[in-house]
Model the fold of this input.
Amino acid sequence: MVTLLDVKDLKTYFFTYEGVVKAVDGISYELEQGETLGLVGESGCGKSVSALSLMRLIPDPPGKILNGEVLFEGEDILKIEMDDMRRIRGGKMSMVFQEPMTSLNPVLTIEKQLTETLQLHKGMSREESRKESVNLLARVGIPDPDKRVKQYPHQFSGGMRQRVMIAMALSCNPRLIIADEPTTALDVTIQAQILELMKSLTTEFGVALIVITHNLGVVARYADRVNIMYAGKIIERGSAMEIYSNPRHPYTVGLLRSVPRLDQPRRARLDPIEGQPPDLINLPPGCSFRERCRWAIDKCATEPPELMQVNDGHVSACWVPEELGTEAVLSGVSAEPSSNGDGT
Amino acid sequence: MTTLSGTQASEQSPTATGEVLVDVKNIKMYFPVSSGMLFQRSTAYIKAVDDISFAVHRGETLGLVGESGCGKTTTGRCILQLYRPTAGQIFFEGQELTELSSRQLRSMRRRMQVIFQDPYSSLNPRMTAGNIIGEPLVVHRMVSNKAEYREKVADLLQNVGLNPYMADRFPHEFSGGQRQRIGVARALSVSPNFIVADEPVSALDVSIQAQIINLLEDLQERFNLTYLFIAHDLSVVRHISDRVGVMYLGHIVELAGRNDIYRDPAHPYTKALLSAVPIPDPIADSKRERVLLTGEVPSPLNPPSGCVFHPRCPVATDECSQVLPELRQVRPDHWAACIRTEGSGPV
Done:
């Protein structure tokens, strides 16, 4: 069975007046059928741009996918004709966006939006697609679907709209759904409903899911594997269990340390990552996290680390992964920023 | 109705002791929804806040959590008199606020300030950071000359971890986290006693949130501030608050010390809310009990009868649709509005 998605050295840059923004700077990963992958990072790390690149939705100009291959079911979709891409997009590969109001067409009924996809990708007749759209709404838990299907997006709440988006994403039996911050705009209890729904549907139909988020908890609960992104690169990758119990990159450790946890005794003080993410137009030489890193050594300033193996299935782009792990997360505020050259 | 100010200090969970700074009594905030083209008349009311009471003690942080539409932001604004409540009273340092004129309120406003959620819309883009922070000083006549003004502004910037030379920059030249620091500095400029922090970190990235939370805690200690911390992120609220109130559709459904509310929630909504928050630890998270709520939050235009939570409540009975439960003490220093919670122990 071929790997569902194989991303190889994807680079997407934006050519602006101020300079070249290296939004995605050479990322590679694989996704198997039915797997859930968490793509984690904060604003500006490149996670959304990487997803849009997979779908070839990057505006050109100013953006350009410069490099790389994206093998979807063995075929490099970066090289195919746009017509063929349109068949895949919405069909075998679909996307759920963050802001459901701006993703749904406000002047068309839900029925129109759902039936359009069904007619286009599945070749259904108008009557068939109407019936199916009611079924889809029922499947995502919208009550009175036969009435609601005739309504407009503004008549739905945020959570309901997101369910409609999920219905649309599922409508053509995709092999892969990319969900870009699907629940960030929603309340916690609705978020839980939506995520449970997505997870159960993907399990039921064997659909692979890429969940893009900055919420570490969401990823822990729903992802099988995790990619952590920073400044356009994947800086750590592994199974969810592995990443949370044995983080081996200073940024991952920093994130886990800075988040208050409900299930643990309250710490006296949170431990933030000092400073800010770098300017993607003027990335520093060497490791892009170095300026905020407590464990940096001399080498970090000049040689950008590649992803190196920590253990089976777990890689990290750091020269001193042995300094990290759970102890680093638990040790709290006591660690001082490293000032001498040997990392001690 | 007595105020909910716990008088017993508990070793395990900090409870409210000491002087009451803010006393909210039975406030309601109803927003009229008018209809009709020719004759604009109110046909319905959005019951954003529907009879709540609580007290905030000097030096404490009271967290107010709930999902969108629960009335927490409206409550904060009522206290600050940014909205005039439809009913009820608000006492600040013993002074009743709702009857005061705008002019009388102005001097009170020096002592209670606000930090807003959105660092992008809460700063005037045409004013420099220094002017944004310094304007309150001028309005409240707290400085007598330009040198004093500059010095105070520089101090305030430093207090929030920003460099004084940034006073001449405009908001668009700062990052989200830095803008929020400016918002904090502005709130502090008049040396208030009480600050309503309305979702001050929700719009920020995770690692920046931690920076701002630490800053708020440091400032609280340094200047003996009292906070009403409004948020929907339960983990953050638990970290920063001494006591926590949970709101749903305009009502307070639970109020307790931070450890009690998280360890031993009494109200079914609180339990559902807590279980909906995923923990960044796959193994620990999978062991937790999951309570999934069905349905959507009802509209505050037409709240359900009796207990407003009953349509979504996993343990509701018939009586729940008829009786609006009062907030009553179910455990020491732990209050819940639910008829299904017994004296002690969960349902």
Q: What stands out?
A: The interface with chain B takes residues 42-43, 157, 159-160, 187-193, 196, 214-222, 240-241, 244-245, 254-256, 258-263, 266-267, 269-274, 276 of chain A (CB under 8 Å).
